[in-house]
UniProtKB/TrEMBL annotation:
Residues of the DnaB/C C-terminal domain: 166-234
Xref: Pfam families: DnaB_2
Signal peptide (from-to): none
Biased segments, Polar residues type: 99-119
Domain of life: Bacteria
Disordered as annotated region, ranges: 99-160
Protein name per the record: Replication protein
UniProt biased composition (Low complexity): 146-160
Upper lineage: Bacteria, Bacillati, Bacillota, Bacilli, Bacillales
Family of this protein: Belongs to the DnaB/DnaD family.
PANTHER family noted in UniProt: PHAGE REPLICATION PROTEIN-RELATED (PTHR37293), PHI ETA ORF 22-LIKE PROTEIN (PTHR37293:SF9)
Compositional bias segments (type: Basic and acidic residues): 120-134
């Protein structure tokens, strides 16, 4: 089989061969990692955003991301607000060579000193140092500058949202551990802060914990409920159906809500 190469003077990326020749990775994982490494260092995205750039759906994309995490090509860690000492948001570092050392990672600042949600970093090891190829910045296309600006704005918004939703959790549920913080952060990315807070509020009304709120979010996503307006409409529809039921159950339904028909624990 012949190889037909393209003259690489514009619109190309230089990526280390290590992940491409890693037999532990699936072809899908290699392709996703190559795509992520081809983007500028300050690019901001998550599973939902990534799934929009290929025919694979969000579920497959999420599984591929998990594969890369397990293989050490992605590292996710909390970043603290220097003023409050609390977790303000989560960031993910993207590596061309798998990383296994997490002891020296600071939770106050990403490894590279940047603040994008996804970072691209080269990891130099003693046996690979002489072979490491410095990753070159992807040459700009006509629409890249404006896209970067949009992502920067989105990045800042995500961080503000994460900080706000974390505060809401701590004020109502108690101490926030790293596992729950990461879960909340992912839900904010996949849906919205207002939807996550709405789920928490409904969990609080039932005197339940975060796993109950997460169950609510899963139900909403499955029903394609994406906004507070959708939530309100669904709750009204549920109540109206209850009113049409048998009168002998009216007293039971009187205080019921859209959420009570689900058992999330």
């Amino acid at each position: 089989m012949g190889i037909f190469r393209v003259k690489k003077d514009v619109n190309y990326s230089v990526i280390h061969n290590t992940p491409l020749r890693d037999e532990k990775l699936s072809w899908r994982a290699k392709g996703l990692l190559a795509y992520m490494l081809s983007l500028p260092d300050d690019w901001t995205f998550h599973a939902t955003e990534l799934s929009q750039h290929a025919k694979d759906g969000k579920e497959i994309t999420t599984k591929t991301i998990q594969e890369l995490k397990k293989a050490g090509y992605l590292k996710r860690y909390p970043v603290q607000d220097p003023k409050t000492g609390k977790i303000s948001h989560w960031e993910t570092a993207v590596y061309e060579i798998p990383s296994t050392d997490t002891e020296n990672q600071s939770v106050e600042k990403p490894i590279s000193g940047k603040t994008s949600q996804w970072e691209s970093n080269d990891r130099k090891t003693s046996d690979m140092e002489n072979h490491l190829v410095e990753k070159q910045t992807l040459l700009s296309t006509d629409n890249l500058p404006s896209t970067n600006k949009q992502n920067t704005n989105k990045q800042n918004t995500n961080k503000q949202n994460s900080s706000s939703i974390f505060s809401f959790y701590e004020n109502n549920f108690g101490i926030l551990n790293s596992f729950t913080a990461e879960s909340i952060s992912q839900w904010v990315n996949d849906t919205s802060e207002e939807l996550v807070q709405a789920a928490m509020e409904r969990a609080l009304k039932q005197q339940k914990k975060w796993n109950y709120a997460e169950g609510i979010l899963k139900q909403w996503v499955n029903k394609n409920i994406r906004t507070l307006a959708d939530v309100n409409a669904a709750e009204i529809e549920f109540k109206n159906k209850g009113k049409k039921g048998e009168k002998k159950n009216a007293s039971v339904r009187k205080n019921s809500s859209f959420i009570e028909k689900y058992d999330f624990e």
